[in-house]
Write a structure and sequence with these properties.
heterodimer, A: 346 residues, mainly alpha, B: mainly alpha, two-stranded antiparallel sheet, two-stranded antiparallel ribbon, 15 helices, 8 strands, globular
């Protein structure tokens, strides 16, 4: 039951990263690939009907965490208080950036919301990456299961780290690069003409950067947390995951050059999924690692809700998810194909 | 009070109060928009469809504000109230996830279709999108009420060995009698906001002599819905809610009423200022024996006053609780007093020319917002000093590791952020109102924004 809920939370977070990832990425590339007002409007329209639904995965995933592993939710959310507050403000800015831009035909109004949308998207990708980095690196958990992290201390990975240190910043950069590339794939896929060409070109140029930071992040992770290999050594089949990451990178390279937009987009989806699966396989059964002594780790065993709550939850959760998947299929089908000029899409 | 605790309370109070200004209108407007869409389908009269489109634009702006200010609410359970989350996650994590899974996914999927998809859907299909958005917003309200109701009146739980709360009955939690009553009262309050706003905008148009046909529709629908729900708000929902309070939270009732001493045939204070130090009401205007009658149905029953309870169990801010309750109840009465004559004039076919009545309807616009806010303040201040009534105190629930300084940092940040949102909101909504309904060119451009 504990493993099931761990997997469910992991699936929801992965769904969030893959789905909201492309609209965050579209936000990052917004100012670079879209030059005219029409093009910017087109970029917004590629994510308009779906971004809100994508973001619900964050809320639903966070809620599931709250329900299934209350200690992790309580400890993590209060410990990462400062970065989470900043994330909240960025989410607010981004939401109004997407939705309010079109209300006025004014270059200043639109410029403001374009900037707000793009900058908040960029910072969010860095913060989300850094958050994942923190979970992998570990935090100074106290005996009562809580901690509080300042935004930064000495930028080193020690017993008393800050939210930002070299490792978590690296994780932030990896996420920024990956989601930018992912978003560029999406924009290339959903638009046509110059806009699509520029987005595809940007994605091609970012490929070597992504390959480089993927290797760097792997090296960095093993340098600070060699014990993450424990599960891998116990179940060697898990070594397939890094191979799958490499394969998705290779696929991306090939499809980018063949201008197979959909396949390229799916390869960046695969890259994100396998990176997260790789991390989840490494940390299990730990949910939040202590940076001081492993006795204080928050694990699926000490953080979970009661068995009865969890078994009831499984029933309505599955039911709700089936409904949600139905909505998603419906919306994405209504919205398939490229965005064309005024009015609809082809 | 510990200064960190005060900051955490202020931040939650500020963010949730600001947040709820928006959902109360979306939840209140949604059914009224469905009414317009239905009238369009049945009569084929395009002006009803224009009315629906106009309110959908106001709805859309409200909805965005509700979404962006709603996300911080879920986060703050963990960030600011971590010990509370840790202990109660097994129970109230449940309705909170259900809100995401059952209503947010639904809303987010159909809102775009409702706002921008009219041209690509059949009229019936578009009616369904409006209906599903209505359903989603009301479901969302239900799960939040279930969460709050469990804190007010915990049911269907057991304590585990580590002190945490665990659900014992799924349906027991969802069908908590407190939740059902509170939901009815709250949703009726939301429709009152929607109805008064609609009537006020219609009255404004009629007084200015523009968009007259739509103005009449808005006033008509607003007044009919306003009357029905203003009455439902008092009876039965408000009445039953008050009786339930008196039964399960008698000390809160005493605080709300400003009843310091137990009394048989207790009076109801209409106006007056509570003086906690001298334990009396200053400058009181009272109705003798009314309180006993309202709670127990007889004029002689004894109502327990604050003196009956240990001071450590008193609500922590009795004056504010007293005023919130009196403002809510007073405005609730005024709503009926406004809507009754308006409905009478409507029935006699004289409302559209009755300028004084139209002025009153227009000026009433802010009052339901105040009443709904005061109602929630009453519920939440009345619950103090408890987070989970009778079981977990507010002083036990906050994040001990988040200092007052860090809390103030985020509180100030939210204040700045929300000031900006408020300005944008007022600016955009007033543009829509000035522009008015029924402009085909404008409907055309709005229709192609996103989808």
């Amino acid at each position: 039951m504990l493993l099931i809920w761990f997997l469910l939370v992991a699936i929801m977070i992965t769904a969030y990263v893959v789905l909201d990832g492309f609209d965050l990425g579209a936000g990052v590339v917004h100012l670079f690939v879209a030059r005219t007002d029409d093009e910017r409007r087109t970029v917004i329209r590629t994510i308009g009907p779906v971004w809100d639904g994508n973001e619900v995965w964050l809320l639903a995933g966070g809620g599931t965490l709250y329900f299934a592993f209350p200690l992790l939710y309580a400890s993590g959310f209060s410990g990462f208080y400062l970065p989470l507050m900043i994330v909240l403000w960025l989410l607010i800015l981004r939401g109004i950036g997407v939705e309010l831009r079109m209300h006025l035909e004014s270059p200043v109004w639109r410029g403001f919301f374009d900037g707000a949308f793009s900058l908040s998207s960029l910072l969010l990708t860095v913060f989300f990456g850094a958050a994942l980095g923190n979970v992998i690196r570990g935090v100074p958990l106290q005996k009562d299961g809580y901690f509080f992290l300042p935004l930064w201390t000495d930028w080193r990975v020690g017993a008393l780290p800050g939210v930002l240190d070299w490792y978590t910043v690296l994780a932030g950069v990896v996420t920024l690069v990956a989601l930018t590339l992912h978003g560029a794939h999406y924009v290339a896929l959903k638009t046509s003409g110059d806009l699509s060409v520029r987005a595809a070109l940007l994605a091609r140029r970012l490929w070597p950067v992504l390959a480089l930071v993927t290797i760097l992040s792997l090296w960095g992770t093993l340098a600070i947390r060699p014990e993450l290999l424990r599960n891998y050594q116990a179940f060697p089949v898990l070594y397939g995951i890094p191979l799958a990451v490499a394969a998705s990178l290779a696929a991306m390279f090939v499809y980018q050059r063949r201008q197979a937009e959909k396949a390229a987009f799916l390869s960046s989806c695969a890259w994100l999924v396998f990176m997260l699966v790789g991390a989840a396989a490494g940390v299990y059964p730990n949910l939040l690692t202590s940076s001081t002594t492993s006795d204080l780790n928050i694990t699926v065993y000490n953080a979970a809700s009661g068995m009865h709550s969890l078994s009831i939850g499984l029933i309505w959760w599955s039911f709700g998810m089936i409904l949600a998947l139905g909505y998603f299929v419906f919306v994405y089908r209504m919205f398939k194909g490229k965005i064309t000029a005024e009015g609809g899409h082809g | 009070m510990d200064s960190a605790l005060l900051i955490h309370r202020l931040q939650f109070a500020f963010t949730v109060t600001f947040h709820y200004l928006f959902p109360q209108l979306t939840m209140g407007l949604a059914p009224l928009i469905v009414v317009f869409k239905t009238m369009f389908l049945r009569t084929g009269n395009e002006t009803y469809n224009q009315a629906a489109r106009f309110w959908a634009k106001v709805f859309g702006i409200n909805f965005i504000m509700g979404v962006v200010t709603g996300i911080p609410m879920e986060f703050q359970f963990g960030t600011n109230w971590s010990q509370f989350s840790r202990v109660t996650g097994g129970v109230i994590g449940q309705p909170l996830v259900m809100e995401g899974v059952f209503s947010f996914f639904l809303e987010s999927a159909f809102l775009g279709m409702f706002l921008y998809g009219e041209k690509r859907l059949s009229p019936r299909g578009h009616w369904w999108s409006a209906m599903l958005v209505f359903l989603g917003s009301w479901l969302s309200g239900f799960f939040i009420i279930v969460t709050d109701a469990w804190m007010q009146h915990p049911v269907a739980f057991e304590r585990a060995a580590d002190g945490s709360f665990q659900v014992t009955s799924f349906w027991g939690l969802l069908l908590n009698p407190w939740a059902l009553l509170q939901y009815a009262h709250n949703m009726s309050g939301a429709v009152i906001t929607g109805a008064f706003v609609m009537a006020a905008v219609g009255a404004w148009y009629l007084l200015e002599g523009k968009f007259v046909e739509h103005g009449r529709q808005f006033v008509r629908i607003g007044v009919i819905a306003g009357l029905i729900f203003s009455v439902l708000q008092i009876f039965p929902t408000g009445d039953l809610h008050g009786k339930m309070m008196a039964k399960y939270q008698p000390v809160s009732t005493a605080g709300m009423e400003g009843l310091f001493e137990s009394e048989s045939g207790a009076p109801m204070v209409i106006i007056g200022q509570p003086d906690e130090e001298r334990r009396r009401i200053d400058n009181p205007i009272v109705v003798n024996k009314a309180l006993s009658f309202l709670i127990y149905g007889t004029t002689t029953a004894e109502v327990r006053g604050l003196n009956h309870f240990p001071k450590s169990d008193w609500p922590t801010n009795i004056p504010l609780l007293y005023y919130s309750y009196h403002i809510m109840a007073g405005l609730g009465t005024i709503f009926v007093a406004v809507m009754l004559p308006a409905a009478f004039l409507l029935w006699r076919n004289r409302l559209y020319g009755a300028r004084i009545m139209l002025w009153i309807l227009m000026l009433c616009l802010p009052l339901p917002y105040i009443a709904n806010t005061a109602g929630w303040l009453t519920a939440e201040l009345g619950r103090q000093p408890w987070l989970v009534y009778g079981l977990m105190r507010t002083t036990e629930g906050y994040s001990k590791y988040v200092s007052a300084g860090n809390g103030l940092f985020s509180l100030l940040g939210f204040m700045g952020m929300y000031a900006m949102l408020a300005i944008l909101f007022l600016f955009l909504v007033s543009r829509e109102l000035t522009h008015g309904p029924g402009d085909p060119a404008r409907d055309e451009t709005i229709g192609t924004i996103t989808a």
